Amino acid sequence: MDCSICSAMPFILRPPRNTICAACYEGARTIITLTTNKVDHVENTKGSDNKTITGLLSASSSNPSIKGFGNALKWVKEMKEMEEESKEKLNYLSGFVVALRDHIHTDILIKPGNDAPSIPAHRALLAARSDIFKNILDSDGCKAPPSNNTITLSELNYDELECLLEFLYSGDLAKEKVEKHVYSLSIAADKYEIPFLQKFCENQMLGSLNTSNALDVLEISDTCSNTSLKETALNFIVKNMEDIVFTARFDAFALKNPHLTVQITRASFIDIKNRRLTV
């Protein structure tokens, strides 16, 4: 059988990459097993991993065949150290979430728009996360005595506000919370100019884009003036017109967003025209 690895044929004439001979297959298995065992050894012998890698790199001068393997182990070790450092930083920053949850030295109240209880927060952190919040807190109203020590975010209900604050304090949010509140959080991120949250919500919407939520994503991207997200959603809708347009959801969407409906129609005609030209 011709092999895509050891064949003597020119590269362009070789068989597909998944076609290999028995000898190359066994060789690949051996390398994977050896690499896995070495990586496990490096991770389980933290006191001697530097010696292990140094020894391999030193031996490469007399045996070049193991140079690549030594470099690979060194790279794995560096990646492992970077991962551990990132985890330590996240654990360190989690103290902010504790301060929010336990109301440690809070100095401002954030009130949602559904007459739910206010949530205590910290002026300094809000100001650091958003220039809009900073301007609000610098205004005369928020510099007044404690009786006026409240900010109302009328567009958010209690759960949405709680998620917004949790993200501002931690830089992350549980998957189920993101899925439930991604649209309201995206609008809040745009209104209060929180770029990291905007990108976070955009990635979530792109990752979960399907025929049942494409219209919602298009509407949110238009509201937030997110050009790249809007273009992606619009293209997705055009590619899946039959599954999206002939639904009750589209009827309600068209009544609420006539300008977006026009854009969908135009994009669909352009797509049809381009496909005809390529035939």
Briefly say what this structure is.
May act as a substrate-specific adapter of an E3 ubiquitin-protein ligase complex (CUL3-RBX1-BTB) which mediates the ubiquitination and subsequent proteasomal degradation of target proteins. The protein is 68% helix and 4% strand.
Q: Can you give a write-up of this model?
A:
- By secondary structure, this protein is mainly α.
- Helix 8 crosses helix 9 and helix 13 crosses helix 14.
- The protein has 14 helices and 3 strands.
- The protein has 3 domains: 68 residues, no CATH class; 94 residues, Potassium Channel Kv1.1, Chain A, CATH 3.30.710.10; 71 residues, Serine Threonine Protein Phosphatase 5, Tetratricopeptide repeat, CATH 1.25.40.420.
Q: Which descriptors would you attach to this protein?
A:
single chain, 279 residues, mainly alpha, Potassium Channel Kv1.1, Chain A, Serine Threonine Protein Phosphatase 5, Tetratricopeptide repeat, 3 domains, three-stranded mixed sheet, flat, At1g01640-like, BTB domain-containing protein
